[in-house]
Amino acid sequence: MPLYLILNNHIASSIRYINSITLARLMESKLMPPVLVSEEQKLIDLILELKKQRNAVILVHNYQRPEMFKIADYIGDSLGLSVKAAETKADVILFCGVKFMAETAKVLSPSKTVLLPNLDAGCSLADMATVEKLKEVKNKYPDAAVVSYVNTTAEVKAISDICCTSANAVEVVNSLRNKRVIFLPDKNLGRYVQEHTEKEIILWDGYCFVHDKLDVNTLKEFKQKYPDAKVIAHPECKDELLKLSDHICGTGGMAKFAKSDGSKNFIVVTECGMTDKLRQDVPEKNFLSFCNVCPYMKSTTLPLVARALITNQNEITLPEDIIKGARKAIDRMLAVSKNAA
Ligand code: 13P
Ligand code: SF4
Fold this sequence. Notes:
CATH class of the largest domain: Alpha Beta
Bound molecules: 1,3-dihydroxyacetonephosphate, iron/sulfur cluster
CATH architecture of the largest domain: 3-Layer(aba) Sandwich
Number of helices: 17
CATH topology of the largest domain: Rossmann fold
């Protein structure tokens, strides 16, 4: 079949899939099947050619479908990818991730064209913090500093004092002069920070539905079956799982820990796709995973990437004042901690 027909067919089925992401489907985590292996290589070749023509850099988050790793210039965690992109001389940044990540890339590289292949690739956690709600909470606690996790919209970052990632949240909070801190939007990460600081943390009632539904009994069963395995968990998980973990870190820190730790087996408590990446990076070790997928992350496909590079769909744009405000919050974090992973 000619390439343009393959592309058209797959764009149509990707769009059908995206349109079908209702809440019920999200909860079931049904995924669009990947493209046929015989067609996959043709699409990858096309994307690599388009990438050259557009002088583009392709950023791929650790939770993306494994075939997306084949077109990546950089694979990594949410903030680390944007920092990397800002350092390149590319004209175009194509972000295979979710919308708040592409916005962060735009904030850090305002003169570059930033593309998100699927505009519906949102984040349930980022959606739980709105500007209106934050203004209300700020009015209630005027003495408190506002610390926004990287999983927030650029608009929310722009009215925050400082940003943080899962790797540096405690360091960022402890660097502040204020005794009280409004921490948003993840209550699980906020609770973890509270356990490591003297400051009073005002928790936000937000959570990631993928991490929050990881089940402690499944973890206990894994631990019983593999008593020698080390447990690595993302801090967006519930406290009862974090308490049973050996190492708590963002996606950028997981491979580093697995490489440096002496254990052979690891139980990975986060989104399912992380184990695809860990198996690639540390092939000599074994990774057991929970099969909870983030459908937003998995809704980016090779055909949609090709379409974005051909048509500029969907370009991320942000008002000047939002870029300026969000940049200030991110720069303040980077001044406190180079530990963005
Ligand atoms: P990282 O910042 O650790 O990559 O996590 C992003 C995310 O969306 C976790 O759910
Ligand atoms: Fe958002 Fe959760 Fe998906 Fe991460 S895994 S992008 S926090 S919905």
